[in-house]
Amino acid sequence: MRISDGKVITCSPGRNFVILKLETEDGVYGLGDATVNGRELAVASYLNDHVIPLLIGRDARRIEDIWQFLYKGAYWRRGPVTMAAIAAVDVALWDIKGKSLDAPVYQLLGGASRDAVMVYGHASGETIDETIESVGRYVERGYRAVRAQCTVPGMANTYGVTHGDAYEPAERGLAPETQWSSERYLPIVPPLFERLRAEFGSELHLLHDVHHRLTPIEAARLGRSLEPHHLFWLEDPTPAENQESFRLIRQHTTTPLAVGEVFNSIHDCRQLVQEQLIDYIRTTAVHAGGLSHLRKIASLAELYQVRTGCHGATDLSPVCMAAALHFDLSVHNFGIQEYMPHTAETDRVFPHRYTFAAGSMHPGDAPGLGVDIDEALAATFPYQRAYLPIARRQDGTMHDW
Ligand code: GCO
Ligand code: MG
What we know:
CATH class of the largest domain: Alpha Beta
Number of strands: 18
Distance between the termini: 45 Å
Low-confidence stretches: none
Strand order of the largest sheet: 4-5-8-9-10-11-12-13
Oligomer: single chain
CATH topology of the largest domain: TIM Barrel
Mean pLDDT: 97
Structural class: alpha/beta
Strand content: 15-25%
Shape: globular
CATH superfamily of the largest domain: Enolase-like C-terminal domain
Bound molecules: D-gluconic acid, magnesium ion
């Protein structure tokens, strides 16, 4: 079962995606997601110019060997571009294996460990009242877990606040500038969750994303002040390059922590997991080396009772979403899956078999990943340059977005 062709498809049905399609001489093909939001074409070039030529003629069944070949063979290892490219190959090969064995990928990963996968949706509002209404709409749709974000007074374009359901962090054109003030942000979060608990009772899982904005001691203070409202998790409280800073947060609060959407290797997760500084690891298939590498991260995490919480924003294509759901359904230490529905155009370009019902999702039982691409339709949505916003403090200093 030799790989006979590889093609990179860049398209923009509402937002940019980079998809790898690998074909075998037997006529079976597989898809992998290679989208790195705001830096898409770097991965497209890495695949086209450096990876696809190496794949032609290789046995598509040897997934682990091809993974190691691309990782060790690059010499310069890791990093988001390299790991997203390896991920795309890996996920496409799992798709091919599933199709050739007539089995959904989750069956190849050990079979279902649960009936369905609990997901969380994204609620937000300009005010606390609006955010409560937004959470209520998710509850009405059956969600049992909701992330809540609220505009920081005086800060237009606060991270995570949307108008309508199709929240999209990247914007076409050049990177927009937003403002940030931790002083204004910190006081609004505890009253938001106090009101949400009063409104929705203790069973609804509530989540919040700090998006790397606070210092460790500010994060510790926020975590402690949220303890009475028992969040499911507080996400990315501080940038995680310096993982020791999580020791400080952990010393001060029992609010559960989730980190890792920007990680791309098990080595990025190692200290946080082994020192039990976090409760949920957020890596997902595209940015962390594909299903093969994600399974290793989850196995490491399982030893320390850290559970998975795969990133699932709109910049992760339906191909990645499907891969994540096969992983989530099978992995023992699953925690939760993020779910931001894609635009109608994206759903049309990527017909898929995964479904949502009663706050949970299922990848479906089609062979492989259960997701396809309509290439002719994709071609009608050409790539458009787009960037994530940047953030500056009120005196103009660059801040983590
Ligand atoms: C999340 C994330 C996203 C990221 C986005 C960047 O928790 O969903 O923080 O909203 O900002 O994926 O491309
Ligand atoms: Mg996040």
